[in-house]
Design brief:
2 copies of one chain form a homodimer.
Chain A lengths: L8 E5 L3 H10 L5 E6 L12 E4 L5 H8 L4 E4 L6 H9 L3 E3 L2 H8 L1 H10 L7 E4 L2 H6 L6 E5 L9 E4 L13 E5 L3 E11 L5 E3 L3 E5 L6 E6 L5 H16 L5 E10 L4 E7 L9 H4 L4 H9 L13 E7 L6 E2 L1 E3 L1 H5 L4 E5 L4 E2 L4 E8 L3 H14 L1 E3 L1
Parallel strand pairs in A: 1-2, 1-4, 2-3, 4-5
Antiparallel strand pairs in A: 6-9, 7-8, 7-9, 10-11, 10-12, 10-14, 12-13, 13-16, 14-15, 16-21, 17-20, 18-22, 19-21
Helix pairs in contact in A: 1-9, 2-3, 3-4, 4-5
């Protein structure tokens, strides 16, 4: 008699929009998904088979959540790594491995990882406190990034000259030479337990010069063949040296000399892969399930070129959200709207995204520009 | 002060795979979905915001489920129509309107609807009992369909000659002249509350001659321009005369003379629209949410041609399911696998589907044929 394999029980630490989109994709496969998150009304809560309310940063909570699961993944780095290490020893498969999380969570360790693996990255110093920073004044202009605890743009200060030193952190931090950025790109890479890899086409970020917010993301990035090869080789080097299965977003700068420098890596599904839901044969969410469930890697090819626009809570608006312009945007041909189900908007909060598909770049730019101006989370 | 609109509360009667795919699509929009279904382990149970265990055929259960909702839709026709009629009077929006369900649920009323609206359909007689049937022997070869209660191929008998009369139903039924079928096609039509319509390209069914099971479904159907116009005009006539918003699958025959005849209509998302998830800009599931939430109609255009293969429980296999060949099929480039999370397989049960996208028809046929032979639900 053949024994039917039992349904894999997989945990996600965190229940935000990344968890939500992971769960939309999970429903294509035989898998039971458990979510751990403190907010019972989070975007992913209702879509999981089992929701556990709890703090993803607490050792006991994470350990108890994970001890009977087959595998665990994350949708945010700020989780209890010690619990994941214990679970890994006890045989739970972790995507990515806790050692990688430990390196990436700390911006000092992350930069040292790049240096020790000969991965090109902006020149940097480590400052333990404000005095170290003041002694490094000659290193400016530079970016000061706090080692631990910086998220979503917090914990980062741009220091152009000595007059900015007071904005720096009096805690272990990295001071990175400011790069004369030509393009900011991101390369998603999937790597399975056998070490097989799949690369998505890199995307190019188009920033709003006034707000310094990510506005559009074009796929594929417009790069020379030579730069593209360089980007792919560097991203593969970053990912392979981690010795961990998972999906990774390697964020890079192409500087004004055409050199490629790694900025940061996220060891998980990522904002820069949202367009893959509709624009690619296997989305980043589908791909992560394939990795976790031991299936073959998916097809990363684009079906059509795309632009992704983040829908961000407007300045001066906080409270119960409604979406101005939603109907207008839903009239746009080939635009895919994703709203994350967050009850409250606040300035800068990611409330959703829209992906536009088109073979015509002008059509993409035109539509995405109109969408950005039209679809506004208001309170 | 502006009042934020409250999140729409929408109910689905039934929690099978259609509900599951509706819920995957719902997570793109600000909506709370409630599911009513007797089986707490049904495919849609865990994906809804609110799951209610109960019988969709019971008046009180359906009425109580619906009375505080903004709108209700169905994923199966076999629901309590009286409760929906009461809810409609009380202001709950129903997709489709209960009057349509009443017509469609009864195969006699459905055929009479086609006749009274001059919609071409196979010639038919109504038989109240076995004696009526025997008196209609000259009408054979014909198909005998029971008026109420026939589902999933049950309640249908093919009567080629007098020797088959014993297989007919001793209950109110329709006796339809057998059509010399050239092609069997389905046309999905969406119609909103303003009466605006959107048509998907029709699909063509390719049956397995031995099992008489739906195996493949090709999109777009290969039809002459003239036949395509005829198909669209007939489908629009079927849908518009219902005077109800909703999404409809109009199943038609193209006979050997090139005439188009309506076979049956389903007033809901339907098996013949599954390929729209990946192959079209707005899927049938996305489209139904647009209708219910009052958004503009979606874009029904195909991104690429596609074939959809149903994954059906094999003969002689009943019990806890596992999927033979799943890894092999997941290696197929541009194949999208959907397994519905049913715990048990049994012969003929729909366990999942796979959609393949390709601009090359030979590639579609080759891949879908291999998938059908490879991916087997076993127990």
């Amino acid at each position: 008699m053949k024994v039917s394999p039992k349904i894999p029980q997989i945990g996600i630490l965190g229940g935000g929009q990344l968890g939500r989109m992971l769960l939309q994709a999970a429903a294509n496969y035989p898998v039971h998904v458990h979510v751990l998150e403190n907010d019972t009304e989070c975007p992913a809560a209702h879509l999981s088979q089992v929701f556990t309310k709890g703090d993803i940063r607490d050792f006991e909570t994470v350990y108890n959540f994970g001890k009977n699961l087959d595998a665990i993944t994350i949708e945010i780095e700020n989780v209890n790594v010690e619990a994941l290490e214990k679970l890994e020893i006890e045989g739970v498969r972790i995507f990515p491995r806790p050692a990688v999380l430990r390196t990436i969570k700390n911006k000092i360790l992350q930069k040292e990882y790049y240096r020790s693996h000969q991965i090109p990255t902006a020149e940097f110093l480590v400052t333990e406190n404000r005095r170290d920073l003041e002694e490094a004044a000659d290193f400016l202009p530079a970016v000061h990034k706090i080692g631990e605890g910086g998220y979503d743009g917090k914990g980062v200060q741009l220091l152009y000259g000595k007059e900015d030193l007071g904005k720096g952190f009096d805690a272990p931090s990295v001071l990175e030479k400011m790069v004369p950025v030509h393009k900011e790109i991101a390369q998603m890479v999937a790597i399975n337990e056998k070490g097989e890899t799949a690369l998505y086409p890199p995307v190019e970020m188009l920033f709003d010069p006034e707000l310094n917010l990510l506005d559009y993301q074009l796929c594929p990035a417009e790069l020379s063949t030579q730069t593209l090869s360089r980007v792919e080789a560097i991203a593969l080097s970053v990912v392979k040296n981690f010795n961990s299965p998972g999906i990774f977003a390697v964020e890079m700068f192409v500087d004004k000399n055409g050199d490629v420098l790694v900025n940061e890596t996220a060891p998980r599904v990522h904002n820069s892969g949202h367009h893959t839901i509709e624009a690619h044969f296997s989305s980043q969410f589908d791909m992560l399930w394939r990795l976790i469930l031991g299936y073959p890697l998916g097809n990363t090819e684009a079906i059509l070129p795309s632009i992704m626009i983040n829908i961000i809570g407007a300045e001066g608006c906080s409270g119960d959200v409604y979406y101005e312009g939603l109907e207008e945007v839903l009239k746009t041909s080939n635009a895919f709207v994703h709203l994350y189900g967050k009850k409250q908007t606040k300035p800068g909060r990611k409330m959703g995204h829209v992906t536009v598909l088109s073979a015509d770049k002008q059509d993409l730019l035109h539509k995405s520009n109109r969408i950005r101006k039209t679809l506004l989370p208001k309170a």
